Amino acid sequence: MVMSRILVVDDDRQLLRALRINLAARGYQVQLAPDGGTALALAARQPPDLVIVDLGLPDMDGVEVVQGIRGWSTVPVIVLSARHLEQSKVRALDAGADDYVTKPFGMDELLARVRAALRRGVPVPEQPVVHTDSFTVDLAARRLTRDGGDVRLTPTEWHVLEVLVRNAGRLVPHRQLLQEVWGPRYESETNYLRVYLAQLRAKLEPDPARPRYLLTEPGMGYRFQP
Fold first, then answer.
1. How many CB atoms are located within 10 Å of the residue 157 CB?
2. pTM
């Protein structure tokens, strides 16, 4: 039986040790990361089945770790934090976290939440780095490269590309793309999509007039074809 792999991200050594001992005692494989950069690198190299991440990390906010993982993975994420403000919880959940545990917490409670999150998690094939003949998209690092150099995208351009790449080979309907990038109030604003797809094609396609990767399905939506 293959046990679930859990990535724990926290700069508190004592807490890392306690979580490693308790999780390993229950048969989980445990990876430890003391900061966000290490966590994202580990997750990309050896995708975990669940992530436990503290919001107060030395190199970045834990929300950024959640966003980086959510760029390419649907793995369950539990956020830990000593922050009691509701706004902190909302930011973490909006970024894609599945659950939120406030410090200090009981180990039994956290383990119960881990079990529940793993039950909800649906394993799917995931790949944080997508290569084409013309460019490479690193969803975990939120980085786009072409001809050996970085391609600069606006936050909205990146969000549109991210949704398409996460659904590589599948049609993404206009409504779904608008809702994920701009929100439910913009589901009919298809002109937004025409503008941003044109901008992305100008930056990525060998011939923007004859797109190979960012394809239009007339009247339906768009498709990323790697």
1. 19
2. 0.62
The CATH number given to whatever domain includes residue 105 is: 3.40.50.2300
Question: What are the angstrom distances between the C-alpha of 55 and each of 64, 66, 191, 205, 225?
Answer: 9, 9, 37, 38, 35
Q: What's the pLDDT tens digit per position in 118-153?
A: 887 655 445 688 999 999 999 888 899 999 899 999
Structure tokens at 209: 């007039």
If asked whether residues 74 and 143 sit together in one domain, one would say no
- Which residues does 102 contact at the CB level (< 8 Å), separation at least 6? 81, 82, 83, 84
Q: Which two tokens stand for residue 128?
A: 């944080």
pLDDT digits (tens, 9 = 90+) for 90-106: 788 888 898 888 888 99
Q: What are phi and psi of 61, to 5 degrees?
A: -75, 145
